[in-house]
Design goal:
The complex is a heterodimer. By secondary structure, chain A is mainly alpha-helical. Chain A has nine helices and no strands. Chain A folds into two domains: about 90 residues, Rna Polymerase Sigma Factor, Chain: A; about 80 residues, Winged helix-like DNA-binding domain superfamily/Winged helix DNA-binding domain (Arc Repressor Mutant, subunit A), CATH 1.10.10.10. Chain B is elongated and about 105 Å long. Classes of the chains: A mainly alpha, B mainly alpha.
Chain lengths: ~180, ~260
């Protein structure tokens, strides 16, 4: 980021290589829309360039970048004037990882993960977001607190509540399926 | 605190540590107090284990991967931003405005005629020498920077090539060499753009086509294809058709080649 701030736009390529994948996953988990997520990733890097002068060298770049990502997502929702329902056709296309398990175990595991994915999509957006940031983006609590503009302890409580809510939705869906 | 100095945790406090436990992110003192609490509280014990299965299950949810188009689009946008940025940074960029250029040309012409009448024949030789020296100096800087180890120095070298004359074969060859051999993708991309200045030369066109045959970076391939289309270089169609036969060709590049062949035919 230092290079970009000094006017070397080539430095943005290094940032892209490092962060485009987690950013893309963040947007797909939030929006459930792959094409939109690709556009949003592009938009984030454009904004990094545009607002590079506002970055404080001693601050966390990751937190700053995710703040931009959040704003980008919020703006896209505002522009489209409706919220995409996550877990749509796009989300279903995501390939399941292969496991070294017996076929029946693999099928059972696959169904559990699929159900969990659906449960995650049913979580309220603010709970889903805090879970994505803490579980998938490997961010420190301090960084999440900065992104969400709250205290570190508040982050921990929010993550706990999000997992609790997810668990309720998941087991409810599993019971409905079994019944 | 207990009499042994041990921290006593309430259920509410213990829940605040659940996430730390799942993330394996607890210090020793807190861990001890937490385990002591779990030992005496069945509700928390059950809850932390039940929620842990959900937390771990989340780790098995597959991570979506972006397709190659994201990278291609990004690098194409980056080149555009770099071009705009370098134009903006160029000193006296407003001089490039057509109206200003027209006025400046008229003033220079009038001044030239006036000075020429006064000093006819005296300094023509000196002026030509001076121009040659300036161009030689620019050429030397460009060529020297292009040979540096640092990619950012080589990028500067590519920028310097914009300042030499179009007929400078040494610089043209250096840029073609950079395009074919430079290990850094950004430098190769910049070389593609810089070669536009030499696009009238048949060697440049042939060099671009040759580079397209050997280039393996999708971004650079797309940049060369775009340039060949802009130049209307029909001789590149054969190479492009050859690329289309390659089963492992990047899908975005394949699309671009198909488009380019359509444009050039």
């Amino acid at each position: 980021m230092r290079r970009v701030c000094q006017g070397d736009l080539g430095g943005l390529a290094a940032l892209f290589e490092r962060y485009h994948r987690p950013l893309y996953q963040y947007f797909v988990h939030l929006s459930g829309n792959r094409d939109l997520s690709q556009d949003l990733v592009q938009d984030v890097f454009f904004r990094i360039l545009k607002y590079r002068d506002t970055f404080q060298p001693d601050a966390s770049f990751t937190a700053w970048m995710y703040q931009i990502a959040r704003n980008t997502h919020t703006d896209s929702l505002r522009k489209r004037r409706f919220e995409v329902i996550p877990g749509g056709a796009d989300a279903k296309e995501i390939e399941m990882p292969s496991h070294d398990e017996a076929p029946e175990d693999r099928i059972g595991r696959k169904q559990e993960v699929k159900l969990l994915r659906k449960a995650l999509d049913r979580l309220p957006p603010e709970k889903r977001e805090v879970l994505i940031l803490s579980r998938y983006q490997n961010l420190k609590y301090e960084e999440i607190a900065e992104i969400l503009d709250c205290e570190v302890n508040t982050v921990k409580v929010r993550v706990y509540r999000a997992v609790q809510a997810l668990s309720q939705i998941y087991f409810q869906m599993a019971n409905e399926k079994a019944g | 605190m207990s009499s042994e100095g041990e921290v006593i945790m309430t259920c509410e406090e213990a829940r605040g540590y659940f996430v730390d436990v799942w993330r394996g992110d607890m210090d020793e003192t807190a861990e001890r107090a937490f385990q002591t609490h779990l030992h005496s509280c069945e509700t928390c014990r059950r809850e932390v284990e039940s929620l842990r299965s959900v937390w771990e299950g989340l780790g098995a949810v597959p991570r979506p991967e972006p397709d190659a188009g994201l990278r291609t689009d990004f690098y194409s946008s980056l080149r555009e931003w770099q071009r705009r940025d370098s134009e903006r940074k160029r000193p006296l960029w407003w001089v490039r405005h057509p109206a200003v250029q027209g006025i400046a040309a008229a003033v220079v012409l009038a001044a030239g005629i006036g000075i020429g009448r006064l000093t006819l024949g005296h300094d023509e030789g000196k002026l030509a020498d001076l121009q040659r020296e300036v161009n030689d100096m620019r050429q030397m800087v460009a060529l020297s920077l292009l040979q540096q180890q640092s990619a950012s120095d080589r990028l500067k070298g590519v920028s310097w090539t914009y300042r030499v004359e179009q007929s400078d074969i040494e610089v043209q060859d250096a840029l073609l060499h950079t395009l074919k051999t430079d290990p850094n993708e950004n430098v190769r991309l910049a070389a593609v753009d810089a070669l536009r200045k030499f696009s009238r030369s048949p060697e440049t066109r042939a060099g671009l086509v040759q580079a397209l045959e050997t280039q393996r970076s999708p971004i650079v391939q797309v940049a060369i294809i775009d340039e060949l289309v802009d130049l209307g270089d029909k001789s590149s169609i054969r190479t492009m058709n050859g690329l289309l036969q390659e089963p492992e060709l990047n899908p975005s590049v394949r699309k671009r080649v198909q488009w380019a062949v359509g444009q050039l035919q």
